[in-house]
Amino acid sequence: MDTSTATGTAMTRNKHSIPLLCAVSLSALSFNAISQQAISGSVVNASGAGVPQSVDQGNSSPDTASRQAIVITPRVKLTETWSDNVNVGRSQNQKSSGLITELAPGINIDARTSRLRAYVDYSLLGQYYTQPSGYSRTRNALNAFGRLEAVEDWMFVEFSGVISQQTISAFGTQTPTSSYNNDNSTETATFRVSPYIRGRLFSDIDYLLRYNRSTTQASAARVSDVELSEWAGQIKGGTAFQNLKWSVDATQQTADYSLGRKTDAERLYGTATYTLVPQFRVSASAGRESNNYASQEQESKNTSGYGFDWTPGERTRLSVFKEKRFFGDGHRINFNHRFPLSSVTFSDTKNVTILPNQFSTVGMGTVFDLFYQICSQLELAQDPTLSGNPTLLEIKATQCAIQRAGPMANTLVTSSFLSSRATVQRRQQLAFAIEGARNVLTVMFNRNESQTIMASNAVADDYLLNNINEIKQTGYSINLGHKLTPESSLNILATRQNSVGSGSTSIKTTTTMYQANLISKLGPKTTGSVGLRRMEFDSSANPYTENALIASISVVF
Strands, DSSP E only, in 339-421? Predict the structure, then answer.
């Protein structure tokens, strides 16, 4: 949302004209690449606006999907929300009830050809409020990603685009969805294009050269735009010892913040991997990096690391790597195990983040995002070769996440924040999923620590405004899905998140939400749902409570 009521309709104005043109260009690229292919008919899908739609709901094989060429799915969704606290930005004793009407026409394009795999999902959301009287605005929601094989088996182009509503401050007013009049939310757009080449030299050395270019822009003037440019190269091969492999990686990255200073970083390192047994391999790395994150001048440090990968069976995978970096010890840990009717996944990473939290990694906010993380790891556990095909992995994980998230796909369960500087972040997530004939229970725990490492604090973000140098966010979510009949289901969600800032001062907020949704197919192309929600936000500045009744109807064509 916007920073003020007066600018409510400015979501499609100047700052996003360039990203929207990029979105059109990405769509045109998709259509041109498949212009000689047949077009399949539309399909039925009632997922929320802004979430990529699944063409086959996971029932088709990738080969079958590739023969479908392109599937276009127009849709329209009408949502009516009655809330006893429409304008949550007001103080608690000025609570007022009202209606929020949201009309969201949208379109989903799913392209799967021999050269192109892509999703483009766009919605234009019109919102109308009874409080304040007569207030209305429009917003954009885009989720697009894909890969084009420009030159057969040599040159590729990956692209992605996201337009969504994001939380500005971890300690400002938090809302369950982006429908509310909340000046702590802004429309943010990130677009990325990444051409790369890959091949083989001398019959035994593989090479990869990639260029990444991304732009992140926010509608709110107090949020920094970010321009990111990066080169990355890798060569790898074997040795006279069959079990010993090697690789050399080099990266150069420049990040330019509109409200902060430009940063540059370079890194060169080599890695050796030795397979002890087919199920277990160890690895070690050494190199050097330089950057100007913690100083106005470039500083160089040696790096080193070690780790292992263990795959005792098809259902279990554990990967651990620890590194000595310029900021201290960094690491990445991933574990997943599938039981016959359940699964457990765990991830723990610590590294430098350049982009704002919401765009540095997939999976940072909605029910769909959290399920996406689980599904990505499960898909990798079933097919480790997907690590070399990120677009196909994204397609499969998206299908899985849409199925699991259900009607609450766009409900916020983890609220992050936007920053205008490089930070060191540690992210942890533990998830359990239990599936039965009619029930699916998912329990997720998350923890995120963010520390500033910038040489200058003259950036108006959470760190400077609250006089802190570390932000910790912890939370959990419990989601139960129960199939009542073949055409209807019940979803119950409970979430809680704490945000704590520490430094010269201390600040804390707590967000708790309970929600229940009943969803049912009303016809071959029509789906309806009704839901109840209770929201509790506790802070020293502006605590509030809210109760809401939500009804929606979706039609696809």
Answer: 342-353
Task: Give the whole-angstrom CA distance, residue 401 versus residue 52.
Answer: 10
Residue 372 has phi, psi (to 5 degrees) of: -60, -40
Is the sign of the CA dihedral 59, 65, 69, 70 positive or negative?
Answer: positive
Q: How far apart are CA 426 and CA 332, in angstroms?
A: 9
Rounded Cα distance between 248 and 80, Å, is 55
pLDDT surpasses 80 at 4: no
- Is 547's pLDDT higher than 50? yes
Angle at CA 289, nearest 5°, toward 225 and 322?
95
Q: How far is CA 471 from CA 113, 343, 425, 440, in A?
A: 44, 30, 10, 33
Q: For residue 112, what are the β-bridge partners?
A: 69, 117
The amino acid occupying position 361 is: T
pLDDT per residue as tens digits for the range 373-413: 667 766 776 777 777 777 777 777 777 776 666 556 666 65
Residue pair 526/68 in contact (Cβ under 8 Å)? The answer is no
CA-to-CA distance for 441 and 432, rounded, in angstroms?
8
- Per-residue tokens: 427: 């992210």
CA dist 180 to 77, 127, 187, Å?
A: 18, 10, 13
Pairing of β 185-201 and β 155-167: antiparallel
Which DSSP letter does residue 31 get? H
pLDDT > 80? residue 419: no
Residue ranges of alpha helices (H) inside 4-128 are 17-33, 62-67
Degrees to nearest 5, angle at CA 263 with 144 and 267: 85
The residues pairing with 249 across neighbouring beta strands, listed in sequence order, are 234, 269
pLDDT digits (tens, 9 = 90+) for 191-219: 999 999 999 998 889 999 999 999 988 88
Among the listed residues 89, 86, 255, 76, the one whose alpha carbon sits nearest the alpha carbon of residue 172 = 89
CA atoms within 13 A on the CB side of 457: 11
Lowest-confidence segment of 91-100, 299-308, 344-353 by average pLDDT: 91-100
Question: DSSP secondary-structure letter at 47?
Answer: P
- pTM of the predicted model as reported, rounded to 2 decimal places: 0.79
- pLDDT above 70 covers a percentage of the chain that reads 79
- The confidence score (pLDDT) of residue 459 equals 63
Checking if the pLDDT of 554 tops 80, the result is: yes
How far CA 425 is from CA of 167, 260, 345, in Å, comes to 18, 19, 20
Q: What are the residues whose beta carbons fall under 8 Å from the beta carbon of 372, sequence distance 6 or more?
A: 362, 363, 397, 398, 401
| Exposure on the CB side of residue 329, measured as CA atoms within 13 A | 6
What rounded mean pLDDT belongs to the chain?
81
Give residue for tokens 């709901």.
Answer: 57
Q: Which two tokens stand for residue 373?
A: 């993380």
Nearest to residue 501, comparing CAs of 445, 411, 423?
A: 423
CA atoms of 261 and 457, how far apart (whole Å): 10
The pLDDT score that the predictor gives to residue 45 is 32
Contact between 166 and 50 under an 8 Å Cβ cutoff? The reply is no
